[in-house]
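Chapter review: from sequence to fold.
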Amino acid sequence: RKAVRPEGEMWIFADTTQDIYENAHRWTEIAMKGAGFSGPWINLPFSYRLPPNLITFAIEFIDLFLEGEDTLKPKLPSQTQLDLFPCNLRYKSTRHEESVQTCFDELMRLITTDDNQERAMTDLTLITDNKKHGEDVQKRLEENGIKTIAAFTDKQKPLFYKGAPRVKLCTIHSFKGWEGRLLVIYIFKASPAVVYTAITRSKRHMNGSYLTIVSSNNNYDQIQGLIN
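The token string follows.
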């Protein structure tokens, strides 16, 4: 309210399904009382950014891991029922001790399997729920002559931008609100809401997008069944 000019207007948008800090109710409901808003929230359920088959996957993920919580399921826009923007989904289970090499291999796989040369190294992005793991993957990439840019500390964040001609590495929390075409996600101890936030960072593309989930958390092995 302090930010609004006299007689001004404010729009507030929220997605409680992506409540990665588990405090959305404090400001989406409690803080709204007496704040000048009237009536219920307006739902905007359709997604025009996610690849259609990833929307289906996201809904199934909610049903499996977030059912019963305050969730808003995305819906397919009617004009995109046909899979015009395919997303290649992949799940790779690994041990945490082997996760750095596994993530490195999966990042490289996205490039080496590109027979049509439609994918660029600079589109590669790793988002992880473990800072130390991300730093180790970055080191492995640099050791192989691959330039990187990362956002694991507050000092790094001002220098991190999507257009940088380097492989990007970032925590899931810092990448919230961003998107990418070639994504590798690493899951170690992330909550379902954080994992959901990560998988919905994918962006549709005419030449297809790619989302690979690498997990050392057995609680998420059921994801493999959603992809097959």
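Two observations follow directly from the output. Residues 52-66 form the longest helix (15 residues). DSSP finds seven helices and six strands in the chain.
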